[in-house]
């Protein structure tokens, strides 16, 4: 992405590119049911006087751009016109360009800028976690009404809770020793905590670290900063690349010493592996870090394939439904969570490849929440179709949102992370 050139921010050039791509999509329409962007685009065209794009005004494109959650699904799974096709179509990165243009003009809302500053908000919110969690709790109508009025957050949306201290402080000193009897003993990994697991929820990271240690991996826990995905959603490309610098400086020396870098969240793995190299194409250090980085499920499957897993896995009662998170899919390595869960004896996980609808922080906002539930409903229905005992997703934001979708369709169920099932099958689930 040539985001540092002036041409990238030229509004006439952007409009011409939007029109070129939207017209191809109008003729194709394969993506009609992926998200809300495409229905908005097609309705706009169908309701125009000519029924074609030529009578749609460019000012009406904004809702199409706003509805894109940058999930990458259209690019990865549907579009026959992506490079090297001569149409050179990349819908999500065109939406990103439109947001980058708006961001440079100062049009990103203050609350969106604030929510993207996870490393400013996280330390304060963990320190004041009691108060922060009380205000954001869905049951606190006064607090949520204030957040709705001040920040535009839908009072019905489940917001992430904060832990009472960062994961690096809570778990860093007590990481289990690697299991010397495991076939993979000798491997070493940096577990890149990512902002969500560092500040918000420790249970997934704790389960992951226990599973890795049980499998002989010497784990070092690091959190040098947020990968920048929330800033990417805002189109803040300078913010993303500036934030990458200290993370590369902290993690690359480990990679040079033979450590694997394991990102706890699919979106963050996607950033390190694909988005950073795209934004910093000539940066050899970024490239080297991207090559050393694994998604968590990918890493466990890699251990299983190269060495075999450690003994001790026991069957779990009941079926498993797996929601494939969009940023897992965007890594283009197949459904690794399903591969991982098939390592549990007798497990036959069912895969659901539908969007959860949450779109990062997108689904928290008034005006988006109902759409987020609507988009996630087919995924929710598919996940509970066989009445499984376990519903899992690798995305820690999709999980709580899917719980709200299941609540909305009258089939409430807890949604966990696949690594928590693996930890359970090993008998490694213990309170932190
Ligand atoms: S990236 Fe995802 S949300 Fe955006 S247009 Fe494509 S499918 Fe829709
Ligand atoms: S993104 Fe590609 S597959 Fe989707 S509607 Fe547009 S042209 Fe068709």
Automatic annotation (TrEMBL):
SUPFAM superfamilies: 4Fe-4S ferredoxins
Swiss-Prot/TrEMBL keywords: 4Fe-4S, Iron, Iron-sulfur, Metal-binding, Repeat
Keyword Membrane (UniProt): no
Residue stretches making up the Cysteine-rich domain: 190-273
KW Cell membrane (keyword) present: no
GO molecular function, one term: metal ion binding
InterPro entries per the UniProt record, alphabetical: Cys_rich_dom
Signal peptide (UniProt feature, chain positions): none
Protein name, entry field: Glycerol-3-phosphate dehydrogenase
Lineage, broadest ranks: Bacteria, Pseudomonadati, Pseudomonadota, Alphaproteobacteria, Sphingomonadales
């Amino acid at each position: 992405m040539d985001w540092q050139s002036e041409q990238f921010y030229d509004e006439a050039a952007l409009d011409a590119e939007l029109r070129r791509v939207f017209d191809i999509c109008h003729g194709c329409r394969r993506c009609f049911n992926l998200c809300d962007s495409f229905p908005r685009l097609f309705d706009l065209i169908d309701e125009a006087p000519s029924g074609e794009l030529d009578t749609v005004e460019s000012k009406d494109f904004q809702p199409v751009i706003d509805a894109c959650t940058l999930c990458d699904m259209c690019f990865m799974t549907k579009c026959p016109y992506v490079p090297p096709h001569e149409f050179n179509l990349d819908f999500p990165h065109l939406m990103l360009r439109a947001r980058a243009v708006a961001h440079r003009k100062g049009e990103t809302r203050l609350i969106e800028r604030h929510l993207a500053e996870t490393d400013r908000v996280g330390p304060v919110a963990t320190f004041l976690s009691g108060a922060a969690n009380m205000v954001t709790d869905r049951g606190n109508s006064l607090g949520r009404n204030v957040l709705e009025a001040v920040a535009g957050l839908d009072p019905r949306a489940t917001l992430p809770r904060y832990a009472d201290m960062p994961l690096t402080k809570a778990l860093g000193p007590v990481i289990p020793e690697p299991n010397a009897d495991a076939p993979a003993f000798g491997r070493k990994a940096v577990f890149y905590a990512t902002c969500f697991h560092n500040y918000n929820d420790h249970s997934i990271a704790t389960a992951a670290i226990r599973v890795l240690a049980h499998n002989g991996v010497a784990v070092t826990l690091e959190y040098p900063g947020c990968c920048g995905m929330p800033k990417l959603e805002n189109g803040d490309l300078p913010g993303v690349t500036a934030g990458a610098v200290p993370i590369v400086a902290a993690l690359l020396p480990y990679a040079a010493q033979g450590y694997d870098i394991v990102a706890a969240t699919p979106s963050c793995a996607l950033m390190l592996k694909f988005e950073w190299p795209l934004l910093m194409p000539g940066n050899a250090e970024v490239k080297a870090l991207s090559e050393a980085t694994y998604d968590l499920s990918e890493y466990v499957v890699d251990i299983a394939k190269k060495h075999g897993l450690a003994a001790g896995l026991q069957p779990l009662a009941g079926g498993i439904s797996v929601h494939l998170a969009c940023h897992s899919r965007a890594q283009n390595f197949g459904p690794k969570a399903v591969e991982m869960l098939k390592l549990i004896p007798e497990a036959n996980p069912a895969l659901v490849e539908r969007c959860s609808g949450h779109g990062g922080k997108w689904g928290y906002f008034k005006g988006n929440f109902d759409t987020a539930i609507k988009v996630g409903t087919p995924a929710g229905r598919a996940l509970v179709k066989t009445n499984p005992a376990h519903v899992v997703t690798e995305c820690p934001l999709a999980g709580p949102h899917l719980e709200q979708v299941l609540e909305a369709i009258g089939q409430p169920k807890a949604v966990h992370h696949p690594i928590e099932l693996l930890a359970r099958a090993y008998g490694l689930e213990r309170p932190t």
